[in-house]
Amino acid sequence: MSTLPSLKMASALGIFLLVILVHTEASSSSGKGGKSFPHDMTLQSDLTKLYNSPVYKVDRMRQPIGGLSFALGILSHSGVRATLANGSQWLIHKGDGFGRSSQTVVVNAKHMSSDWKIIETKDFRGTKTIGDFVKAGGTDYNVIFDNCHFGSRRMMDQKKK
Ligand SMILES: *[C@@H]1O[C@H](CO)[C@@H](O)[C@H](O)[C@H]1NC(C)=O
Description:
The protein has 161 residues and is α+β, with helices and mostly antiparallel strands. The protein has helices at 7-16, 44-51, 130-137, 148-156; strands spanning 54-64, 76-84, 89-94, 104-108, 117-129. The chain has one domain (4-156). It contains 4 helices and 5 strands, in the order H-H-E-E-E-E-E-H-H. A 5-stranded antiparallel sheet has the order 4-3-2-1-5, covered by helices on one side. The longest helix has 10 residues, at 7-16. The radius of gyration is 15 Å and the shape is globular. The site of 2-acetamido-2-deoxy-beta-D-glucopyranose (NAG) has 7 residues, from helix 2.
C-alpha cells in the first residue's frame, strides 16, 4: 500500500485493526470470577471474517443502567444485536473506554444479560456487514453529543442498498 486513497479507507483500516476489549458488564451475572473474551476470538483472520459478514435481522436493544427498573434517556444503555446468516448474534455498542481504536465494539450476544430489551427490529437482508455497523456506531464517544444512543440510532438508520 503506497498511499492512503482517502480518509474513508483510513478509517476502514482502523476498524479492521480494532482490538476488542473484555466487556465485563455483559458477563457480570455469572459470578464465576475470571474474565472471558466476549468475542471468543483470538485470531485476526476470524475477526476479519466476522467484520466482513453480512448482517440480516437487527434488533436495537436497551438495557437499564444501575439496576433501575425503567429504561429512560441517558439512564439506559443501548446497542444493536445483529444476526448473521449462520444464526450467530453479535452485540455492537459504544461506550466511553469500551475499545482502543474505536469506542464502538462487537461482543458475542450470548454474553448479554437478560435485562436487555428489544425496542426496534429491522431486516438488513445482508446489505450491510458487521464492519459497516461498527463504522456507523463511530469511533469517538461523547456522553452528551455522541453516546451509545446516537451510535445505535445511526446503526439502525443505515440505508439498505
Ligand atoms: C458464524 O459466523 C461468524 C463469522 O464468520 C463466526 O465468527 C461464528 O463462529 C459462526 N458461528 C457459527 C455458529 O457457525
